[in-house]
Specification:
alpha+beta, Sulfite Oxidase, Chain A, domain 2, 7-stranded mixed beta sheet, 5-stranded mixed beta sheet, 11 helices, 12 strands, globular, disordered N terminus, binds the ligand Nc1nc2c(c(=O)[nH]1)N[C@H]1C(S)=C(S)[C@@H](COP(=O)(O)O)O[C@H]1N2, binds molybdenum atom
Length: about 325
Amino acid sequence: MLIKSPKSWELPERLVTSESVYMNRCHFLKKLGFAGAGAWGLLSGCNRMKAGSQDAPKTVRDTIPAPTGIYPASRNTRYTVDRDITAEEIAASYNNFYEFTTSKENVWKLAYQLKTEPWKIEVVGEVNRPQTFDVDDLIGKMPMEERIYRFRCVEAWAMTVPWTGFPVKALIDLVQPTSKAKYMRMLTFLDEKQAPGQKQQPWYPWPYYEGLNMAEATNELAMFVTGIYGHALPKQHGAPIRLITPWKYGYKSIKSIVKIEFVEKQPKTFWNDLAASEYDFNANVDPDVPHPRWSQATERLIPTGERVPTKKYNGYKEFVAHLYA
Ligand SMILES: Nc1nc2c(c(=O)[nH]1)N[C@H]1C(S)=C(S)[C@@H](COP(=O)(O)O)O[C@H]1N2
Ligand SMILES: [Mo]
């Protein structure tokens, strides 16, 4: 396992100072008129933190947006975890996002090419109020909050992450699916100019697609996520909006969503179409159901590699076990 751990001398001041202190100083410097070319050195860190930069990042910190706007949102303490939050630079440099590359350590180096502003999400299908949202408008309408969740990939690695977003149910209440809607299908963008992995790996059935049944989608745990670690999502995490279903393996949590469709029949899903015997539709975390090629009894914490027991439904039994009774 290759994890690039940051050397202490590489840490920008922003990560040593608390982020809010740092941002206030940026704001203060700008207010004083230090925005001219001469002040570039002083302000460079501030400018780098604008969300949606199209410049190639030099370090993973260059990919991390500033905590502006609704961020940080207040934390909902109903959702607790029994282990430490993963360091932000670790989570931001160990990603699965095959649209860019299958090399987890390199996703952040390529994902900057995704243009995330403006970003629209189309809601269609069996729904009384089909509509297209601009993602910023949607964020303005939704009850945004932070939740710390356990995160578990089917490949047996795990992290602990503070996400910011809103319950999927809040969007469902807004668009009002019809009584025929039994599943919610979601789609990622398709653009091989921005996503080199879509061009270089034509054997994958792009764009990435996933789905949940309505009971899962309206479960309180299911979130549409727009932020992480108290700021907007870096592109490698699926900016500007992705799904999080913490009781399921990570492949369900589709990134950079452009379309949501309510349908009658169980939709096909990307990984299930590729290898049905390895990736089922439900994808519920279960220590007793091994993947055909490895055990799921334990999981590997990133970045230490420490092995800990896998929990049924990833520790969220009390919230979701009734869905599968
Ligand atoms: N569009 C898209 N969504 C995706 C993936 C992907 O390759 N493409 N990978 C999935 C997998 S396998 C995992 S484990 C998580 C990883 O999320 P993270 O990189 O934010 O930790 O994203 C999921 N969502
Ligand atoms: Mo995954």
